[in-house]
Amino acid sequence: MFNHACCRPPPYLFDYYQLLRGKLLPVFNGGLGDRVNNYSPASSYNTATTTSNGGGSSTSAGAAVVEEPSMTSSLTPNLTSCHWSYSDHVGRPLFCCKASPDPRLPVVDFQFPDHSDPIRVRRPVHRLSADFIAKYEKAFAIMKSLPDDHPHNFWRQADQHCLYCTGSYEQTGSDALLFVHRDWLFFPFHRAYIYFHERIIGKLIGDDTFALPYWPWDVPEGMLFPDFYHRGAFNDSERDFSHLIPLHQTADIAFDGVESGLGAADQVAANLAMMYHQMVSGARKPELFMGCRMRPGRAGACDGPGTIELIPHNTMHEWVTNRANPDWEDMGSYYTASRDPSFYAHHSNIDRLWSVWKELHGGRLEFDDPAWLDAAFYFRDENLRLVRVRVRDVLDMSKLRYTYEEIDRPWLETRPKPAVEPKVARGILREMEARNRVLRMPGGAPEAPSGGTSPDFGPGGRMLEEPLRVKVPRPKRVRSAADKAEEEEVLVVYGIEVKRDTFVKFDVLVNAVDEAAVAGPRSREYAGAFVNVNRGVAHGDPHKRKATLKLGITELLEDLEAEADDSIWVTLVPKGGTGVDVTVGGVRIEYLR
Ligand code: C2O
User: Is the domain of 484 the same as that of 582?
Assistant: First the structure.
């Protein structure tokens, strides 16, 4: 059922965290212990003396050999630290280090492809030719047939994702784990990952113009699961076929874990409205779109995904996956997601949306911060060289010699409207408040303390077993157009704790009279949502942080005519019965430049 060749579960009777850190090695024998820290690959593809095999000639002319890594801490994996990761949902360690390069291999710094190389044009899945699909499928067949320890082997390429996404590595110069999800490394890591994957495929099929397809679930023509992925080497048995065959259901790109029940036309409208939130009104500052600013070291950890990562990224992983599996493998879990060939077209669309967002924001540099720009990842390239690629290397697609065939952006025009006329809504909300029906706070605290903070939900946080409505003060009222352009008003849901590593979703509504009357993203009252995907991070792991959700609401407050108000009413609405698995610390308003 799963592809667990590497991951035989050990006995369960000791401290997993110690195990993960390689501190209980002697407990094991029989092929487990020797794969914990300092994993030494035995194959010829991975030893320090290898030149190349199968992937063509190693043309490292001109590539600089990197000096010894300095011990200043940075958001770069320490290749010698590869260790087990952990899924606490089913209590099972995960091992991805088979794909980790031997740290003794020579490393070359990334170099841009030659400007005379052809530009690879990534096309939408609904416009692919039969020839292209056949060629692309052949590439998967080849990758799946390569020796198990070949870096271009399909499962080893999939493990590359597991390495960076479940915290298999420590950061260079620190024992903090490196995570490329739920923070500002999300877009750059995945861009680099699929960049190399694309070039490897091109090499394997002898086509240096080969370009990955993208799955544009953000436009109506792209909202179906692409049929060709059911074929031959594209197939993955671990999908939710009730969505895909024979119904050809329109994707619910903000999937709650349960069916939306919407007809196709309504689902399309909901999806387009969702895209408007995530690309336009909710993403007016880089941090809102890209994710939180993680810094090196334990103190620098953060857990705050950007808009697109939460929805549709996380939710489409969940919509495709087989939810009958313990960790929602394949697409629904970080450690297995890229074992589904549709992952790459999904991520190609995510990558395209980054470039679209950037274009809408005048092409400006997202963050002028060396911690981000110098963050680096290691990949084996199409010639089997070990390449260190930094975030600063992947910021300009044209230098990477690929582009996206243009499609429409219908979601630019889908600015939502209030479900209830704002003046009427405010009247009702005030009345509910007077009748003590609004603040279901512990102890019934009637008013928020000053200082822009809502009442804190107490040390244990507040479980979301049912919708929770709170009144949140706004530190600043009546802001000028210039203020609003400079500083985005941000609704912050902080101290989000997912109890076990499992799917969780809650929506956030502003000034909603009745959550049942809000038509999801099609209503202006909808501010966004939090979505948790299985991460493979140990519960109780000191590296596990509480998450923060930041939602830009400047435009929403204009449309709800709430800009002059000194507070707003916020409702947190658990979805798909998942509220019992999450607690929230509180809600407040901040301003973000
Ligand atoms: Cu690293 Cu879509 O996941």
Answer: yes
